[in-house]
Amino acid sequence: MKFDFLSESDQAYFIHKASTLVEALPYIREHSGDTIVIKYGGHAMGDKKLSESFSRDIGLLKEVGVSPIIIHGGGPQIGERLKSKNISTQFVEGLRVTDKETIKVVEEVLSKDINSEIVESISASGGKAIGVSGNDNLVTATKLNVEIKDSDSNIEKIVDIGFVGQPKKLNKDMLTSFIKNGQIPVISPLGKDENNFTYNINADTVAGFIAGELQASKLLLLTDVPGILDKDEKLISSITLEEAKNIANKEYISGGMKPKINTCIDAMKKGVKKSTILDGRIPHSVILELFTEHGIGTQITSN
Questions:
Q1: Given the DSSP bridges, would you call strands 91-92 and 95-96 parallel, antiparallel or unpaired?
Q2: Would you list the domain boundaries of the chain?
Q3: Which is nearest to 284 in space by CA: 21, 32, 44?
Q4: Is residue 301 within 8 Å of residue 219, measured between CB atoms?
Q5: What are the φ and ψ backbone dihedral angles of 174, each rounded to 5 degrees?
Q6: Cβ atoms within 10 A of the Cβ of 288, count?
Q7: Which tens digits make up the pLDDT trace of 233-254?
Q8: Which CATH code is given to the segment(s) 33-297?
Q9: What is the dihedral of CA 180, 181, 186, 191, to 10 degrees?
Q10: Of the candidates 154, 82, 78, the residue with the CA atom closest to the CA atom of residue 109
């Protein structure tokens, strides 16, 4: 009879895996029963290996009793589709100017293409995902008015950027029904106003809004940076809500990080217990954040 013995390196590997599972157990218990809202986008969504690991993470969350809600972006894909159709794109304060022709493309890319891909990927990993377009009776929106300062006169003026909106009301019954049925909602960041017009909405904004309306246990914003960096460009691993309010307008908080911080602040004002801005480029970033001692990214706590 032949016996196979593990090498020392193999033993060390499996011992490490066992230790990781043991470390995760108290955090699994802590989050079991929680509703966690996750904004999914950036490099994590565009890279095949990362998107597969994300889908497995979401399936695992559901298996251990967490109710994840996914809100996805799609800016790069929208840009590519517009370019292929020879439709020019303009941005004002980081927001895409969206006319009637553009909003049709936005809806097509977000609701039909990207949403379906994410649902299929999560389903292939064992999760029971369901695709939902925000403008399909889920998110009621209003037109977003953008104020900019004239560089010469320094006078603020309102600029019309078309069908770009902000969330106003959420159909909470729809989402709670999905969760009760064991489903994982995957939501396109769109909304519809009272006149039946569809609006493109920033995905971070929709994620924060939904988390706040549901008073979710946690909001996760996946980004293409490690988290919130201080003035020396070092990662801030943890920060209180009051500290977040204080640094939100500091000069070293630049680019897309300011609105992300403000999204977390707004959600937590409505009752979300914790928010984390984390690097979606790291494989299994969601699991590392939720089920390990130190987590990753920047966590914002209530106190």
A1: antiparallel
A2: 33-297
A3: 44
A4: no
A5: -65, -45
A6: 17
A7: 899 999 999 999 999 888 888 7
A8: 3.40.1160.10
A9: -70
A10: 78
